[in-house]
Design a protein that fits this description.
Layout lengths: L1 H28 L2 E8 L4 H16 L4 E8 L4 H12 L5 E10 L1 H7 L3 E4 L4 E3 L13 H16 L5 H8 L17 E3 H6 L5 E2 L3 H7 L6 E4 L4 H9 L4 H18 L5 H19 L5 H19 L4 H17 L3 H25 L5 H4 L26 E4 L6 E6 L2 E7 L9 E8 L2 E6 L1
Parallel strand pairs: 1-2, 1-8, 2-3, 3-4, 3-5, 4-7, 11-13
Antiparallel strand pairs: 5-6, 9-10, 9-12, 10-11, 12-13
Helix pairs in contact: 2-3, 2-9, 3-4, 5-6, 9-11, 10-11, 10-14, 12-13
Length: 437
């Protein structure tokens, strides 16, 4: 009986181990492909999103990452930060140029281990420009060309074509970009020059080409905070927020008590800092520096002198630059905000202020002139030559009574006793000079 029981126990153990082996094999065979969209403008909000998405892919033990790229480009600094993040990834990365990977988008695509393109896809036109749309200076251009070259070389691609995307002086006429033109590769030309491993109609087709047809597809999605941060840190939105803030606070400063302009300006500043905090561009020390600047400017009201106010203004400007992802973008944004704010304030006060009741509250239209009945002091030339009696001793200032009117006067001498007759000999504005008779 013991042998039979032992035999049954052995069979049961073998059965359980076989089931466990099947489950382990099933888990081992299960693969995950993580798809991360790279869309719209390349800016610091996208850097945060991609960094978080790559970390999530690692946590999910993804076997492969696909960057679904469709972007017109954006900030150089942001593109370089994204490149560093991709390079640090231990998971193989494939770039899928889904329509367009232009400018900074082309640079990001070149960071991937493999590149595939959708039919009609475009990649290239990566010349570096400044915030005004002009060609960047030689220093910035040299750095960008080196980055483009390195991106091509590290994945065994001919650097000539990466450089031709960013430098019009490079001749790439064999792929339709003679000297003087920037190179933009379509799907077919990209395959010809080794910048694409193939064409895929869609993501599903790409997954099959990569050999992951049975894999689980996981999609990275932007959170509400990330979407908001990307929108608030957009180079177009930043000067708008700063303009609203400057204009609102300026109107409130010149017309205290209105409330609404100041509140709107304050909200615009809150949105600016919230977006840059959420995007990882600014830390709380930047916000504290801004608050310190505001406090110093308020102290200037009670401690006039100019130095405290200048320090406060410097702290505010420094905090804005520290929060910005790009020095150039912030400089341009501040110039735009200042110019628009000054123009708008002049328009509101000089033009609309004379026509609309609301804006009349912002301007002092009344003039304190003599014609309107306002005088700074009354000149009593009518008192010249009149005689009165001192009501108090004059030491030399005191009071006299002339024609039953009590007046403050000064004597011509050093002292005049009470109840003495005096005569008005000079009137200078509100100053009345008398002489003892």
């Amino acid at each position: 009986m013991l042998h039979i029981k032992g035999f049954r126990a052995a069979l049961l153990s073998i059965f359980l181990l076989s089931l466990l082996g099947v489950q382990l094999n099933a888990k081992a065979e299960k693969q995950t492909v993580y798809v991360i969209p790279v869309e719209k403008n390349v800016e610091q909000g996208l850097v945060s999103f991609l960094s978080r998405s790559l970390q999530d892919a690692k946590k999910e033990h993804a076997d492969h990452i696909i960057l679904d790229i469709n972007t017109p480009g954006g900030l150089v600094k942001s593109a370089i930060d994204i490149a560093d993040t991709i390079t640090e990834s231990e998971i193989p990365v494939t770039a899928y140029v889904n329509k367009r990977a232009l400018s900074a988008g082309a640079y990001i695509a070149l960071q991937a281990d493999h590149i595939y393109m959708a039919p009609g896809g475009k990649m290239g036109a990566a010349a570096i420009i400044d915030g005004k749309g002009n060609a960047a200076d030689q220093k910035a251009e040299s750095l960008w060309l080196a980055e483009m070259e390195d991106a091509a070389v590290k994945n065994n691609r001919d650097p000539k074509y990466a450089l031709a995307m960013a430098d019009p002086t490079i001749d790439a006429k064999e792929v339709g970009a003679p000297k003087g033109d920037l190179l933009t590769l379509n799907a077919d030309k990209a395959i010809d020059v080794g910048y694409s491993e193939g064409t895929a109609d869609n993501l599903s087709a790409l997954v099959k080409k990569l050999g992951f047809e049975k894999a689980h597809i996981s999609y990275a999605k932007e959170s509400f905070a990330e979407k908001t941060a990307r929108w608030l840190t957009n180079p177009i939105i930043v000067p708008i927020l700063l303009t609203i803030a400057f204009l609102g606070l300026t109107v409130e400063l010149f017309s205290p008590g209105v409330g609404i302009p100041g509140t709107v300006g304050f909200i615009a500043l809150l949105l600016f800092f919230y977006g840059h905090l959420a995007a990882g561009l600014a830390g709380y020390e930047t916000v504290l520096l801004f608050i310190a600047g505001v406090i110093l400017i308020l102290l200037e009201i009670f401690l006039p002198g100019g130095i405290i106010g200048l320090l406060g203004l410097g702290a505010i400007i420094a905090s804005l630059f520290l929060a910005a992802g790009s020095f150039t973008v912030m400089a341009v944004s501040l110039l735009i905000a200042s110019a628009v704010s000054i123009t708008a304030f002049i328009l509101l006060t000089r033009v609309l202020g004379k026509r609309m009741k609301f804006f009349k509250k912002l301007i002092l239209n009344d003039s304190t002139n003599t014609e309107s009945g306002y005088v700074s002091n009354q000149t009593r030339t009518d008192l010249m030559g009149k005689v009165g009696v001192t009501f108090t001793p004059l030491r030399p200032a005191g009071t006299v009574i002339i024609d039953d009117e009590r007046l403050d006067v000064v004597s011509e001498g050093s002292f005049t006793e009470k109840d003495k007759k005096v005569k008005v000999i000079k009137v200078e504005g509100s100053r009345i000079v008398v002489r003892e008779i």
